[in-house]
Amino acid sequence: MRAQFQRLQLWAERRLPALTRHRQQEQLPIELHRRRIYIVPTGFGMAFTLLLLVMMVGSLNYSNNAALLLTCMLGAATAISMLVAFRTLNGLRLRGLRAGHAIAGEPIDIIFDTEATRLRQAVRLDLAEQTRAFDVQGRADVTLSLPTEQRGWLSLPRFRIWTTWPLGLFRAWSWMHANYAVLVWPRPELSGPAPARPTEDSRRQRLHRGEDLASLRDYRSGDSMRHVAWKASARHESLLVKDYEQPEARQEWQLDWRQLSGMSNEARIARLARWLGEAQAQGRPWSLWLPSEAIELGSGHAHYARCMSALALLP
Amino acid sequence: MSAILATTTHARHRRVQERLGDRSFDLLCLTTAFVLAVHAAHLPLWLSIALFAALGLRWWQRSHRPGRVPGWLKVPALLLLIAAVMLDYGNVFGRDPGSALAAGLLVLKLSESETPRDARVAAAFSCFLLMAALLFGQGMTATLVVALGLLPALSTWRSLEPTQIPVSLPRQLLPALLLLMVSLPLALAAFVFVPRLSSPLWGTSNPQAAATGLSDQMSPSDFTELLTDDSPAMRVSFDAAPPAKNLRYFRAYVMWNYDGKDWHRLDAPIDAPAAVEAANTIAYHINLEPTHQRVLPTLDLPLQAPAQSQMYADGEVFADKPVNDALDYTARSALRYRFQPLLDPLTRRLALQLPPDFDPRTHALALQWRQRFGRNDAAIVQAALQMFHNDGFRYTLVPAPLGHDAVDDFLFHTREGFCEHYASSFTVLMRAAGIPARVVTGYQGGFWNTIGQYLLVRNSDAHAWSEVWLDGRGWVRVDPTAAVRPQRINLGAAAGGSNPLLPWYESGVLESLRNHWDIVNRWWNEGVIGFDALRQRGMLTPFGIRDVDTGTLEKLLAISIAVFGAAGLAWALWRRPEGDPALAAMRALERKLARAGVARGRSEGPQHYLRRAGRVLPTQRAELDHLMRCYIELRYATAEPSPESLRMFRRAVRNFQPHRVV
Description:
By secondary structure, chain A is α+β, with helices and mostly antiparallel strands. Helix content of chain A is 33%, strand content 31%. In chain A, the strands form four sheets. In chain A, strands 1, 2, 3, 5, 6, 8 and 9 form a seven-stranded antiparallel β-sheet that branches. In chain A, strands 4-10-7 form a three-stranded mixed β-sheet.
């Protein structure tokens, strides 16, 4: 049933270009207007219309004018609810889209930045099998997550803004296909060897002892006697140790695509991604050489993001 | 800038429905309570109580132990409901048992309502039941109450939408009220133009509601009930000045047959119209409340039957079908007349018959008068009226009971009673004396509503009087009650006497309030209930269209829907002009200058642009400089420009007229 409906939808989109006009990608911001808002009764709306007809025929048959008036009022309210549904979407703007980062296989959060001059209630947004309902007055951010499968650019699929406000009798909707893509980072491998270290590594580590006294702390077994603050300890019940701020204790990594010869491209990328993650977690600086670009030594989140993006974009 | 965000996320194919919110459930319970309340008037008391109890239990159950009512309870409850309705009504079809069953089903539906879908269906069903309640009575108050019942139903639907701004329950009803108010004009247009059926599509059951109003037989108990019922019976508006108070007799039934206790009308009244010599004719419109009877009261003496009715020889007017809804009709009557100056033998015999072996003393008195006055019938009538006037007769609504010889008892013992007793005994007395006589029932008096310019006749204005046939004068109306208590005739029923049965609010300020309220009711009756196929066809007569047929009505309906649709679309498509008013004023200035040949370049700032304009229009350089300074100040001097300076700038732009230098 569902598959058939989708086939029908595909056929309609092929045959009726007017309906598919908004399947083409469009530039942000997108403002909804009358030419792209569609409205049909919901199933419940149809059933209620049928009920109204029954009520009308009944009241006409019994020539009961009060009942007829009541039926007319319900009918008019139904018609007006259709206009209200339209007005809920008309003039709604999608100002922009923002997305965080995600690695392939994990959902990525996409933030829809919407704007409206008056209050729009119970607007719903469908994206990739999920629906989120929200109100907009002024500006509102709506977050939906998009599943990802592989690294690289993922363009945002067609999504739908719809509402059944106020009575659930009519459903107004508009399809949007924003010209927007998110970059999905490669998935790191789960485990593997550490990168080969330069030989002078262990020698240099000892030199990197902090010089500045940061604070005093309690003695722990294994602390060097040279670091005990004898004068301070004399005034105290237990031994106190001078704690030196730990400087960059870790050695930098020079990650290189060429080191990983003999592996497939994707395996290389996954390993490099894992190393990048470990380096970032351990706070060590790293540089990265890739066939497409060479990234200088650096550290921090921005550096990590740059390297991951470069990995994601490898062919 | 506020945003209330994200409440629900669920799969698009909503197999799993979310739980019904508490507020929605409360609104649904309120809707159901409304439905039960408007139906309570005609449901059996035990059923109403049971349904209300079930509703209350369900509400309590859900607020304490959320969840459906267990499934094993549903089927027995349904069977019990059907059995109860069957027992009480005999079947489940028809208006009364149908509505009882439907009300029960609604409560059952409520007991299993746990999803938004259930609530939607239940609220829609409530709408249907609310409409059905109007089939039992379509008075204005009833309709207003029913329309109020739509508010919780619509609000239930509204509360099912995902994001809800939390408000109190009464405030939650307000948007629905607004929606109904807005929909009223369209609803009225549809109401006026929807073609009415000239005959029903399927058989409409005859409502056997307790008939209020006059009945076609006259027995004292009926009348007492009637005389204390102050609900409106009819409203009369006259084309000319209303007739004098003592001429406001509205004729309904003519009673011929007396069985010693009750009076009855003829089973087969004579069809042929009787000869009438009329003077002082008057035309009038009557708006009759539903009586479920066929009789149409008319001012004494009707000359011609209104449409779709028939007039009998004795002046009774009967409609072709019972008056089950308020009915409007126009008639014409004579205030002075000679009615049937020649009496045929059959009618004379009918008008003289009396049950044998009743009321010997009355017969003796009549015989005695006949001997005293000879052939002078009028003198006998006068003698009888003199007797009522002088011999200590009293008017009261709570007379002493009468025995076997009712007229004897009344005339010689109790001597107290109301119009029915007087009319009855007078007629018997006349017949005993050999004067053809009959009893006429109807209404007398009424309240003249000066604001509405119409006569309001209540059921308590019901009256009975006599007609005697006098040689050369025909049937003459004689009101023996007037001989006892003339105020009854001049002031109406309220002056009937010291009457313990009449409610305390019968007089004073409340009385006048009630009479004002009656105007509204009259509008309702005439404008809404009485708007039938006939009225609909004639509604465009002032515009020169005599007969509006169905095709025209459909066209009018389509036109009005199109007009309202256009108005609605205009509203839906209209957008508030957005953006900065200062910028808008600047754009207006740019348009003016562009017409004068100074168009603003794409990359041109306001300062540069207006300076250039000043060079092109040297005579207005000062003015343009001022405008520029104003604008710069508005845009850049403060974050929030004062409305004062904004207004000044806009006025300056409006007043600026570029003069081209030639």
